[in-house]
Every structure is written in C-alpha cells, then in structure tokens.
Amino acid sequence: MLKWAIIFFLVSLVAGYFGFGGVASGTRTIAKVLFFLAITIFLVVLVFGVLLGTLVF
C-alpha cells in the first residue's frame, strides 16, 4: 500500500510539473489517503504484536 502511495505521489509531481492541476490534486489526495491508511494499519499491527507478545503474521 505504501508502494501505491509513492506511485501516486510521483504521478502528482509529474502532473503538476506539466500543468495538469486537477490530476495533480486528485492524485495527491489519493496518495495522502493511502499513506495514512498504511501508517494506521502498521500501527495497529504493531500494537497487537506488542500486546500479544508474538508475531501477528
């Protein structure tokens, strides 16, 4: 998921450079959502791993 956030961020940078403001804005929003979703999932798995004392996966 973090990989997709980075890809959308790079697309946003390229679109912004070439003057496609709407595309840049949309991909930036998608990248932000995916990034924070990935961070949230990571923290939840980390907390459950610490609380259970074992690996979750």
UniProtKB/TrEMBL annotation:
The keyword Isomerase belongs to this UniProt entry's keyword annotation: no
Protein's name according to its UniProt entry: UPF0391 membrane protein J2W49_002613
Gene source species: Hydrogenophaga palleronii
Domain of life where this protein originates: Bacteria
Keywords from the UniProt entry: Cell membrane, Membrane, Transmembrane, Transmembrane helix
TM annotation in the entry: 6-26, 33-56
Protein family according to the UniProt entry: Belongs to the UPF0391 family.
InterPro entries: DUF1328
